[in-house]
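Journal club side-thread
Mid-discussion, someone asked how the predicted structure for our own chain would compare to the paper's figures. Pasting it here so we can look after the session.
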Amino acid sequence: MISTATRIRVRNILNRLETNQLVTLEERIFLNKLSNVSPLVAGWLASALGAEASSIDNE
């Protein structure tokens, strides 16, 4: 389970990803590390990136 502060931070970053706004490398690394240990965050990230990103990763 993730804390409320972490959930808010993750949703903020994901919202910026979805709207093609600036996301720093540090934030991307944070999301990647968190998605490796949290299936919930992994699902959010996959949804935010869309089907194209998922298909690129699987090729």
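Post-session note: The mean pLDDT is 88.
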